[in-house]
Amino acid sequence: MSTIIVRTPVTAGLGELFSTHGLSKKVVMLFDENTRKLYGDELLKTLTDQGFQWKELVVPAREASKSFSTAYRLYGRMIEADVDRSWNMLAVGGGVVGDLGGFIAASYYRGIPVIQLPTTLLAMTDSSIGGKVAINHPLGKNMIGFFHLPKLVLIDPSYLKTLPEREIYAGMAEVIKYGFIADEAFLSFLDLNFKAITELQEPWLTEAVKKSAFIKDDVVTKDFRETSGLRATLNFGHTFAHGLEKLAEYRYLRHGEAVTIGMVCALFLSHNLEYLDRASLERGLSILKKFRFPKGVLKLRFLDIESELLLENMFSDKKKLDKKLRFVLLKTLGEAFLLEENVDNKPVLKAIDDARIFFSGKRLH
User: Where are the domains of the chain?
Assistant: First the structure.
């Protein structure tokens, strides 16, 4: 599986690290416009100083960059630069760059190694790990892609200091998710230190990042291609979230914001279907209540949406099977499972309505 390294600075001794893992010192560097501006000069100097040969590619910092047209353009740049299968792809950025870089690496010359250098909390703890890489289609997000594990995942928590608060909270959603699905003690740690982590205080930040990354890696190692249902538990809250993202046109709602809402819905569904007890439900909700949304986003992107419309858009989720929605639910805090049988629309709609009441601040009965 992938080698995950969490440290500051993570690029120290990069040449030796590449050699240890059988990687050539020929690298295609993929940035978005933001990561190029923030980290590009320093990273490219590091590569030059350590004897690397490199080619630089930059894409716009937006979800629309995860497209066939962008990939096609980058293939052309790489071919013109005589990049062959002896090269590596190093993706520097958040989920968009990581997915796009991984997709190109998986398909160029039928596959070249990819190294992920995530720069957002969400990418450090989720999207850069596990080898799922994809581009979007107008009819759905991440519909076209590959399983292509990174050789290395290089995580430097100090990069998070450049992120706006909104991105920190969006990434924190995936961190909290790991506590819900796999580790109740970690969930308690996150609950106790939520403020310190979101304020990027050490050592709590690095501990949260490291624990999240290794929980995901462990799950992926045990069920790489989702054959046992274990990897599917990583999608806790995501069936609801993907419907919300589609309604927001993949632009007006961060993935982590959608997942936060989705986890509230999934907690209620777990309780309404009598898997999760009331005390666990209320404890889970008390943690998710700590999340912040930009002014107006929660109202426009969830509270004002009809439950039936959200349910309809959830059916665009690539994780449905035989046109049936698949839900990850909780038996208890720290233990998730994939519900195999079909769920009637009525409890799903009720879970959405319960979440709406929760977020609107009304008292639940």
Answer: 3-161, 164-360
Catalytic entry in 36, 148, 167, 174: 174
Give yes or no: 271 in active site: no
- Listed range (199-213, 219-233, 344-358) with the worst mean pLDDT: 219-233
- Give the model confidence (pLDDT) of 96-125 as tens digits: 999 999 999 999 999 999 999 999 999 999
Q: Does domain 164-360 have CATH number 3.50.30.30?
A: no
Residue type, 303: L
Q: Mark whether 231 is an active-site residue.
A: yes
**Fold of the domain built from segment(s) 3-161:** Rossmann fold (3.40.50)
Tens of pLDDT along 309-359? 999 999 875 555 556 799 999 999 999 999 988 899 999 999 999 999 999
Whole-prediction pTM? 0.92
Residue 21 falls in the annotated catalytic set: no
Query: Is 242 designated active site?
Result: yes
